[in-house]
Amino acid sequence: MEMVCSGNLNSYNPKTIEISKKFSAGEYPVSKIKCYRLHIKNPFSSLSWRGNCVKIFLENSHDVREGRKDENNMKDEYVAYVGTYTHGSSIGIHLYDVNVEEGTLTERKVIPVNNSSHIARSLNGKYLYSIADEGVAVFAVEDDGDLTPINKVDIDGMRGCYLSVDKTGRYLFVAGYHDGKVTVVHTHKDGRLGSLMDGVFHKGLGSVAERNFRPHVSCVVPTPDNKYVCAVDNGIDQIKMYKLNTQRDRLKLVDILRCERESGPREIVFSESGKYAYVIYELMNKVDVFSYRDTGNGPEFEKLQSISTTSANVDQAHDAASGMCLSPDHHYLFTSTAGDNTVAMFHIDPETGCMEKKFALPISGEYPKDIAMFPDGKHIAVANHESNTITTFTVDYEKNVLVQKGRPMKVETPNCILITKKGVH
């Protein structure tokens, strides 16, 4: 295929080069194009470019405009890990091979671990951490994505529900839903989990007696600047902020973000810039947008926006917002809501952090407990806890719809899903 281009070659810029009407982004999507033979309309140039092959990226092409990373990143191979409860036939973490281009998952094997309610990967990609009945289990990640057990540690409490690592990779944080505890575990350089550094039990009473009558820590994550640790308490409607003393390996409470009563905060994620935080509320079925900064005297969160996660068929008493994730380019936020059984998409204004809801659509499953974006930003996977399935969809950013990819895949009581690069990063 040949194209005719015009412009000053001495100031050539692939984003500003004028391309003739013979070529348009709508007719030839960038994802289908490898390279082109260019004829340059510049006979006075001292450079001889005729016949050279140049890869062109179109600034306005749909394939690089919404939710996506550079296609060069798609050369990597990916796997998905799905943690499950093991009360029935499932025995642990299900390993899937990921077809990024097609937006599909193919199950390969299951790695035994009791009641893997949440999983997280180490910063260097060498290890995978999983909640287990025994506390926390750690696995070595092999080149093909398979997992080899290393060790387990007791967290001196009830089974956890959420895992994250700090920005140095030295500490593993564990959220305890059942006992309202925040636990800090030391990680060794060889992958082994070491001793418990600290453990803090939350105190207080919630406002919904039939359910949230005591602390339930549902999420623990460090702030993007790694200065504080945010512990989301679903039971007492608070997000407690701790400072980690790395000399003494102890947590110190420095502030509390008090959420609306009976809101049930479930999870917090931060924008790529680190300036904004998004909190999803299980009982009020909404997401709050906050600005975040470190004042020098402590963390400061200012509420900017509240927006619903549900469709028009909302049933406040029986719906429960559950999963949340950002697109790879952080331009979109996705949420899932049980009862309503939908996934919602929100466009994020990078300047203000505020969002515009684009849709809330059904996901052909019950209790979408967790969601994960494919690395190309074009597809999303939904772990449906009650219907024992995983469903995958193509995200159409122009039409604001989800297009299901094949039939739901059977997996018993999926809790969480992590799509990540195969092998070590």
Structure commentary:
This protein is an all-beta fold. Helix content is 1%, strand content 49%. It contains one helix and 33 strands. It has one helix spanning 62-65; strands at residues 2-6, 18-19, 36-40, 53-54, 78-84, 92-99, 104-112, 119-121, 127-132, 135-141, 147-153, 162-165, 171-176, 181-187, 193-201, 217-222, 229-233, 238-245, 250-258, 265-270, 276-281, 286-294, 299-308, 320-326, 332-338, 342-348, 355-362, 368-373, 379-384, 389-396, 401-404, 409-410, 414-421. Strands 28, 29, 30, 31 and 32 form a five-stranded antiparallel sheet that branches. It is globular. Residues 1-65 have low confidence and may be disordered.
Radius of gyration (CA) equals 23 Å
Q: Mind summarizing the main beta sheet?
A: 5 strands, antiparallel
Mean pLDDT equals 85
The poorly predicted ranges are 1-65
Number of helices: 1
Overall helicity = under 10%
Q: What's the number of extended β-strand segments?
A: 33
Distance between the termini: 37 Å
What structural class do helix, strand and pairing data support? Answer: mainly beta
Overall body shape: globular
Task: Determine the strand fraction and express it as a percent band.
Answer: over 45%
